[in-house]
Amino acid sequence: xxxxxxxxxxxxxxxxxxxxxxxxxxxxxxxxxxxxxxxxxxxxxxxxxxxxxxxxxxxxxxxxxxxxxxxxxxxxxxxxxxxxxxxxxxxxxxxxxxxxxxxxxxxxxxxxxxxxxxxxxxxxxxxxxxxxxxxxxxxxxxxxxxxxxxxxxxxxxxxxxxxxxxxxxxxxxxxxxxxxxxxxxxxxxxxxxxxxxxxxxxxxxxxxxxxxxxxxxxxxxxxxxxxxxxxxxxxxxxxxxxxxxxxxxxxxxxxxxxxxxxxxxxxxxxxxxxxxxxxxxxxxxxxxxxxxxxxxxxxxxxxxxxxxxxxxxxxxxxxx
Length: 320
Ligand code: GLV
Ligand code: GLV
Prior knowledge:
Pfam families: 2-Hacid_dh (PF00389), 2-Hacid_dh_C (PF02826)
GO molecular function: glyoxylate reductase (NADPH) activity; hydroxypyruvate reductase [NAD(P)H] activity; NAD binding
Distance between the termini: 31 Å
Number of strands: 12
Shape: globular
CATH topology of the largest domain: Rossmann fold
Number of domains: 2
Family: Belongs to the D-isomer specific 2-hydroxyacid dehydrogenase family.
Helix content: 25-40%
Strand order of the largest sheet: 8-7-6-9-10-11-12
Oligomer: single chain
CATH architecture of the largest domain: 3-Layer(aba) Sandwich
CATH superfamily of the largest domain: NAD(P)-binding Rossmann-like Domain
Bound molecules: glyoxylic acid
Domain D-isomer specific 2-hydroxyacid dehydrogenase NAD-binding: 110-288
Keywords: Oxidoreductase
CATH class of the largest domain: Alpha Beta
């Protein structure tokens, strides 16, 4: 009998094809809507492997329920949606999808930074609302990006890829990370500084830090108060690293200039989100790694991790 794999979202059939001799797949047949909790529990009970997305909370209760589970393959680099400790205790392998999404996510980080600094969304809306009457010297004038200082919080693979892009814009690169990264300092010319110094000196503060107990709401009222009044805050990691009330207040009261957010403490947000009412905030629906090429690579890597775990050679990219 073939091992049974449940996939929590509809993914393209052609990506599964190479694996259908090996596995029986079942899949939640909806691309936009996440799987309901009762279906997820039912499916997990029967499954030897689970392929899941950041939208699924794989908590203790679900893991306990998945008595046959041997592998949980997240289609994401971050895995704060999974109780890894509980899985590990039960001998279940947890895998993520690093590397394949690094450059794509860095692209989006830079796109968000540029859109925010140069008020791209506001400018498009300006025309959509038919408000363009005349050219104006300061019409929709934003902030420069080139030759400014970028501060990267979390110097992992994605942080480095952002730093390389920043080099192309002749920016000065500061970074803060739990551990120093001498190779990155050397080949990118990034300067290691304390979190406080990074906040004080950066024109752009970019969060790429994984979510954990330690990073929980590290961008709080005090952090925003330390930033320049002209600072632009970009978050492409996880919403939980931000005290959102403090960020909202800082934007509303112009204590910082603007923010670009791809992630939120509680997703999805809607048009009623307070952030959506601010002109100086650009919001995106968690699309950091969302290029067709990269999403296909992430799904294939998750499948390879399942195959490696269940068919002997071991997973390619287990977490930790
Ligand atoms: C997406 O947020 C990821 O962690 O890959
Ligand atoms: C995050 O873990 C990264 O790859 O930067």
